[in-house]
Amino acid sequence: MSASKVIAKSAPTRDHPYKMGPAMTALNDRRREFVMALLEQGDDNYTRAYMAAGYTTDYDSAKSAASRLAHEPAVQAAIAEESRARLQAGLLMSVSALIKIAGDEQGNTKDRLTAIRMVMDRGGLPVETVSTTKHVVELDDKALIAKVKGLAAELGLDATKLLGSAGVVEAEFTEVVKETSEGLEDVL
């Protein structure tokens, strides 16, 4: 039996009584029939569901009325509510199938790993993917000082306040002015 048939058999249907949710309860009987017919047929053929709900047997008149009905907010809410109920009904089967795939040692490794990851994630042990990127830029002192000065100029900042004493040699000096070469013969 296919998975969709198992889910359909375990989900609420027109013939299987169940407790309706608030969105379904808010609809009249014929609108509820429309929602159930739509879900049971498993596609979006609104016209066929409209006719199955007993609105009319004339296809042409049902076509536009069915589309309008399917797009009413109350009907949309009921479709969503019933769809969630059907998904809930299929959870046990889906989890069992997932565990079976994860445990199949003869199965496709890629499928098994995907199934294992899904079981772990839903079981409260999420698989974390950690990615680390290291970006290293190496600049010598002169290049770094030039970069800081350039950025400071772009931003209108005083580079000396940013750099402090970096790249500056502190020293005392005396300026020598050469006026004559007299008396310097011994030095030369």
Q: Could you tell me the number of beta strands?
A: 0
- Percent of residues in helices: 55-70%
Strand coverage percent: under 5%
Q: How far apart are the first and last residues' alpha carbons, in Å? A: 111 Å
Continuous helix count:
9
Rough outline: elongated
Class by SSE composition: mainly alpha
Give the SSE order as H and E letters.
Answer: HHHHHHHHH
Describe the sheet with the most strands. none
The average pLDDT value, as a whole number, equals 80
Q: How would the blueprint of this fold be written?
A:
Layout: H1 3-10, H2 22-25, H3 29-41, H4 46-52, H5 59-70, H6 73-103, H7 109-122, H8 141-155, H9 159-163
Helix pairs in contact: 1-6, 3-4, 3-6, 4-5, 6-7
Structure notes:
Helix 1 packs across helix 6 (about 75-105), helix 4 (about 45-50) packs across helix 5 (about 60-70) and helix 6 (about 75-105) crosses helix 7. With about 190 residues, the chain is an all-alpha fold. The chain has a domain at about 5-120. The protein starts with a helix and ends in a 25-residue tail after the last helix. The protein contains nine helices and no strands. It is elongated, with a radius of gyration of 40 Å. It is about 60% helix and about 0% strand. It has helices at about 5-10, 20-25, 30-40, 45-50, 60-70, 75-105, 110-120, 140-155, 160-165.
